[in-house]
Amino acid sequence: MNPIQQFLTGHGHQLQLWVFVSLFILSWNIENVAGIIFNYKKWKHAFTNGPFILTSVPGQLLLGFAFIKTIEWTTQHQFGFLYYLPFSKTPLVLFIITFVFLDFGEYVYHVTMHKVKRLWMFHIVHHSDPVVDVSTTLREHPGENIIRLSFTLFWVFISGAAFWILMLRQIIQAFTTLFAHMNYRLPEKADSIIGLVFITPNLHQVHHHYKQPYTDSNYGDVLSIWDRLFGTYKKLPAGELIFGVDTYMKKKEINSFISLAKLPFGKYRKANNDHQPIQTDKEL
Question: What is the mean pLDDT of residues 88-103?
Fold first, then answer.
C-alpha cells in the first residue's frame, strides 16, 4: 500500500469532513456573489436545513462501524467481484472501476427512492426545499441517511471495494454534491461540455423541478452518463424552473424542521397536475 492509500485509510473520515466544511463555506460565498436566486432569506433557509446534520449522526456512526467491519471481512476473505477482474492490483485502474461501479450504485439507489412510494416519502424531505442552494445538501431525513448508507454498504460488500477507494470517492462526492446543489448556473457552453460526463448545477436543478417528468430525471450522483444511457436525462430552461414538490408546497410543511421530520410517516399524496404554486419572499 503506497503512502496515499495509507493516508486515506487512516485519515479518510477526517479529510472528508474538512473538505466538506471548506467547500461548503466556499460555495456559500460564491452563491452570495454569483447566485441565480437572491430574493429569499438565506440564513433562515439554512437554519431550517442545518438541524438535519445532527439527526444524521447516529446513523453515520452505526453505518460507519458496519463499513469498517464489512471491508475488514471482504479484505480478509478476498470477497467481491473486483478481486476477480484483470488489473485488480493496479491502483489507478482499480480506483476507476470501483468509482464507476459505486456511482452506478448511487444511480440505482436514487431511482429506487423515487419509484418506491414509502421510500419516496423519506426522499421528499430533500425535494421539498423551495430553494436549492448548498444548504439543501444537508436536508436529508435521518431515515434516508440510513437507507442511503445501507445501499452503499451493499455495493461495497458485493464488490469488495477497498477502504481507501471508498474514502477517496466520498471526498470527490462531497465536492460534486455541493457543486450540483449550488444556487448557481454554469454558462450554457460550459454546461454542455461538462454535463456530457458529470452532473452540473444546471442538470441537478432540473431534477429539483416541482413537477414530473422532470422530478424523475437526472438521477446521477457524480456522473451523468447513467441518465443518458437509461433515458432519464432531461433539460429545462432556467426561467421555467420551480423548486419543490407539487404535492408539498405549504409553508408549514416545507419550512419547519419538525414537520419535515414527521413527513415520511404521513399519507402518500399523488401529484396534482393542476396545482400551480405561488412562491413569495414570505414563503421562503
Answer: 93
